[in-house]
């Protein structure tokens, strides 16, 4: 395995960096999109709430691979050129945002209705109530499950290998096909993913403990 690291260090580093870039971009985009959809689901406006519900149910129940392949294979047929890397990020964003939306909705719903009503009775607008009363409490509730979704996103980024996305898994397949050392190659690639996911797991665990301590106080 150390020989593989030495001989194919350039490919491994490039794949590692591409995996990080894809994960970070998809993370930020899915957090924004999922947050908005999650808020839509909690609105009194039935049309927006229904749109949010349909979005979540649609993308949450479709395999990630199908979403990615749709943008990689189908969309280019209609004149829009999308690389495997880009289609992977779009697919990861749409797929992950559906789960994040569900987390955000649950967090908002967990805030007691009486607090919302009290804020409105004090003359706050809906936006002010969300900004100063609901969302600060909801954030504490959703941080741990959001962390788990981010970890899942990093692992799901291996889907880029299916569309020549130049990620860790893509180069792992390439190295394995050249060396026929499948055990060493995929053990090495698994270790590279652990380099990303283990610190994230520890960070999520730390945040959970900190929030629990604050609740006790």
Automatic annotation (TrEMBL):
GO terms for molecular function: transmembrane transporter activity. It holds the Pfam family BPD_transp_1. It is a multi-pass membrane protein. The chain crosses the membrane at residues 20-40, 61-79, 183-207. CDD domains: TM_PBP2. Residues 16-204 form the ABC transmembrane type-1 domain. One of its GO terms (cellular component) is ATP-binding cassette (ABC) transporter complex. The keyword Cell membrane applies. Keywords: Amino-acid transport, Cell membrane, Membrane, Transmembrane, Transmembrane helix, Transport. The keyword Transmembrane helix applies. It comes from the Bacteria. One of its GO terms (biological process) is amino acid transport. Its main location: membrane. Gene3D superfamilies: MetI-like (1.10.3720.10). It is found in: Cell membrane. Belongs to the binding-protein-dependent transport system permease family. This is Glutamine ABC transporter permease. It comes from Aerococcus viridans.
